[in-house]
Description:
The chain is of the alpha+beta class. The protein is built from 7 helices and 8 strands; from the N terminus they run H-H-H-E-E-H-E-H-E-E-H-E-H-E-E. The chain has helices spanning about 5-15, 30-35, 40-55, 70-75, 100-105, 145-160, 180-185, and strands spanning about 55-60, 65, 85-95, 115-120, 130-135, 165-175, 195-205, 210-220. Helix 1 packs across helix 3.
Amino acid sequence: MDKKWEIVFDYLMYLIRENKVLPGEVLPSQNMLKTKFKYSEQPIRIAFNKLIELKIVKPVNGKGFVVQDKISNNLLFSFRELFPGSESVYTSIEEVICSKEIKEKSGYLLGSRLFKFRCVRKTKEKDLILFQESFVPEEKFKNLSLDVLNEIGLMQFIEKNTSSIVSHSSKKISFITNAKPLLEEFELKYDEIDGLILDEGMVYDIFGETLEYRKSYYQPKFFSWDFIEWRK
């Protein structure tokens, strides 16, 4: 059963994710949440502290907990926010055993059962943005199927069908000069693509456990850095 603070945290994340409380607006107060959930102050305070730690909200004297914009918290809730109207198609899913190579990259237990699946993402004009291969632990993702992935996607599956709460992701970016073997492996025919940007990383829950290990191969023209650098 979820801890009380996790239930509060999940509710507050829902308000932010669904734009019911927008950047610059204030989340429900601790007193309001105490009344809503019939909880003591401690689990509610822990939930807010976690949001502050993740830079999702900022405490403001006299106002409360203010939701930060995406520049401040570097947070995207959906890939479609980068490419409005884009389409994700999951093409395959299979059960595999965690190899030594996957263990070293993901932290999954050697010999554990994983779901391996592939996804292709295109613009609304059907231009290839990226293709991706992912590994998730079977014990955390029971009832995951190709139909479910194509219906709601992985992140919504996590939210609706597991007790996990997504916290953050890590990324390692590199360039692949010979794209042809990978395109052939994914059965994609794009002769004009010479190289690919590899975004290799993991998605973690709020306890630091790996929920997904994935390799995303971007078409370079759709990949760009956009960040703020502070001088110290």
